[in-house]
Amino acid sequence: MNIYRGPDAPSVFGAVHLGYIVIETRRFADWRRFGAEAIGMHHDDLDPDLTRFRLDDQECRFLLRRGPAEDVVATGWHLDDHATFERIEARVRAHGVPVAEGTAEEAEARGVERLLRFPGPKGIVQEIYTTPVTSPEPLRMLASGWVTGDSGMGHIAITSAKPTLTRGYFDTVFDARLTDCIDETISGVKLKIRFLRVNERHHSIAIAAVRGLPVDPVRTRVQHLNIQAAGLDDLARSYQRVHELGFDMALSVGQHTNDRELSYYARTPSGFEWEVGWNPLVVDEATWEPSTHQGISVWGHTPVGQTIVDKLGQFRLAARSLARPERTVPALSGAGIPDD
Questions:
Q1: DSSP per residue over 57-79, as a string?
Q2: Cα–Cα distance measured from residue 215 to residue 282, given in angstroms and rounded to the nearest whole number
Q3: In whole angstroms, what separates CA 27 from the centre of its chain?
């Protein structure tokens, strides 16, 4: 069970921000075209086995390292200060979960001064740091800019057969709060999606689960990543470039019911989806109350090029997931947190 922190225990909520993502891939050339030429991010090659994308003055927002996973393997969380860093480290250690310090080479590749790592849900390693390294080099990118700052750089969405445990994990480690939920039926499958926030951004983590069935219909550890465009023109032009360069579009432009974000979803060279969004609402902690929305979108977000073969493939993946237990971190998830 979770260790009771007491009513006077300091919360880290608001001092945690999604800082970087580590992706393992062998498809470097495709990722360079996708990230720099289609999405419009700044691109730097460090060596034949390491590539980075920037969104702002921080040296690294996405680190691609060579390997077979074709998936996200780690998420980096930027913490406001050393007190928050030490508080989270102490929490993880107090639950008996191993914590390891990243090497100097790993920190340099991620553009941070130092980092600690520990196990996370679905085998995605969680990394924490306080001091990002900034670059004096001007950004060379097709987009006019991306929204980062106090909200962090976007969000990560996962599918889970054990959503209450995943929610329990992020509550224990980061004091994550439930923003809202969405109930949706896709191809006859009923989904419940929980949206968790760790700061003013509507959500930094989304957890989707098949209602009533302990299955996971997605091959990759993440279902999608999100970054927020600075302007509507940036979103529209990147959408056009994705099409022109021949990358698959997963969902057309649409608007979400809960955070009101306008967005589209492209399919990355590694297979998971990449959402480019614009103008989501910002949560007001003084007035916000969680609610449940019916349906993911107000309009749009229609599947692009999906065939019955694709749908059958998802059902096969879901069936296979029954034979491979989902990786959790029981010491940090506790008994889990059911829906409010």
A1: SBS-SEEEEESS--EEEEEEEEE
A2: 32
A3: 20
- Give CA–CA dist 81/316, Å, rounded: 45
Q: Is the pLDDT of residue 283 over 90?
A: yes
What tokens does 13 get?
């909520």
Which helix or strand (DSSP H or E) is residue 265 part of? strand 262-267
- With residue 211 as reference, give the H or E element that holds it: none
Pairing state between β 292-294 and 177-186: parallel
State which H helix or E strand residue 253 sits in: strand 249-256
Q: How far apart are CA 228 and CA 38, in angstroms?
A: 15
Q: Kindly report, residue by residue over 284-333, the tens digit of the pLDDT.
A: 999 999 999 999 999 999 998 754 334 444 444 444 544 467 889 999 99
Q: What's the rounded Cα separation, in Å, for the pair 254 and 21?
A: 25
Torsion of CA 127, 89, 208, 34, to 10 degrees: -10
Beta strands in 8-113 (DSSP E): 16-25, 42-47, 50-54, 62-66, 71-79, 100-101
